[in-house]
Amino acid sequence: MIRGNSIKPACVRLVAAAMGGFLLIPVATAAPVKVYILAGQSNMQGSAHQRTFVAIGDDPETAPLRRDILDGNGDPVVCDNAWITYLTGGGDGDTVLRGKVKVGFGFDGECIGPEYGFGIYLDKATDAPVLIIKTAWGGKSLAVDFRPPSAGPYEPSAAEKERGDVPAGEAVGHYYREMIRFVRATLQAADSIRQVVPGYTPEQGYELAGFIWFQGWNDMCNRHHLQQYTGNLIHLIHDVRRDLQTPKLPFIVGVLGVYGTAPDSRRFDRGLPVSAFRSAQFAAVEQYDQKVPAAYRGKVIAVDSGPFYELALSDIYWKRRLTGEWKRRVEQGTMTAKQMQEECARYGFGDGELTPEEQRTWDRGASNAEYHYLGSGKTFIRFGKALAEAMLEIDNR
To answer: Which has the closest alpha carbon to 359: 327, 331, 323?
Structure first.
């Protein structure tokens, strides 16, 4: 890790001694700001609505987390000494948000991504100020949108060539360049850092302390992109460290966990190559040190989001989705009521209606679609906590 600014030794102050003369009393400067970069696509943006936080208390295993995420009034906490600047965008163009880590740095002002739990638990673990620089845009691939420079030009598939659907040259790697540009712009001077972290001084300095990558759905859904994902991710790790001039920057790959840790055992949507994609991500972490110069080796790990995926909530999602479709088909006359009953029996959906308990579970725990981790605060907060714990463990190696 490197210092972004030179860190001066403790200040010295002259204090009058009781018997005359002066004593030199060291006065500690503020701790350097620890800077963490979070990047990816929609699941790094974050879909979990704050109303789903109540579900954390419904599970005895997670109920203790409420003390960490809710204040004395029962409202979501705002971090004391963890700050964030967030570059994102949509149809209306890019937006930059800044402030203390709190609810509102996700999809909208009431949603969170992994940064919330990550910031809370880092804030609890360190006395140093924490600065999170987050860049995330929905629907972006590593093969094209975030393509790192050392991966070389994008080679379109035969199907893309046949359709005339070849990405324009300027689109390839655009979001990688934007990510690096935003990090550099944030850290370029004391004034730019002070826009996010009030009171920051050049004497205090900063430390590039870690990078988290959480992305993959678009590459998983494109077999051509999936085949090259391991290599592209290795290039990403190398290029981020090189371009930020931090050869051993701690780097965490957040592994796709939609469908949990054993996606092939799921009853629903088994056509997606989730297991193959997860393997590609793990392989990049395993192979990285074997493929790069010695100066770049070490401190690259994978953190699996799969253990935090709400499988029971997913079952309700699919019951709602499938029975809703069957009901529409019955109304349209393309499916008989008997056929619907048979499908419900095959999947164990009863009469096709949610039970009161299923409805309550859904209302309290979900706020989005399955590929967005069901918009579950319970998932995103626990995953963010796991990322913070992993980053702290890397620091202690």
So the answer is: 323
Number of H helices, E strands in the chain: 14, 11
**313 closest CA partner among 242, 361, 251:** 361
pLDDT tens digits, one per residue of 333-350: 999 999 999 999 999 999
- Note the residue count of the chain: 397
Alpha-carbon span 99 to 117, nearest angstrom: 15
Q: What is the pLDDT of residue 84?
A: 98
Distance from C-alpha of 112 to C-alpha of 327, rounded to nearest angstrom: 33
Contact 33, 39 (CB under 8 A): no
Dihedral angle sign, alpha carbons of residues 329, 330, 334, 339: positive
Confidence at 220, pLDDT banded by 50, 70, 90: very high
DSSP string across 268-295: S-TTS-HHHHHHHHHHHHHHHHHHS-GG
Q: Mean pLDDT, to the nearest integer, of 189-193?
A: 97
Does the CA dihedral 124-384-281-276 come out positive or negative? positive
**Would you give the DSSP letter of residue 32?**
P
Q: What is the DSSP string of 97-158?
A: EEEES-TTSSSSTTEE-HHHHHHHHHHHH-SS-EEEEEEE-TT--TTTTT--GGG-S----H
Q: In CATH terms, is domain 32-310+379-395 a member of 3.40.710.10?
A: no
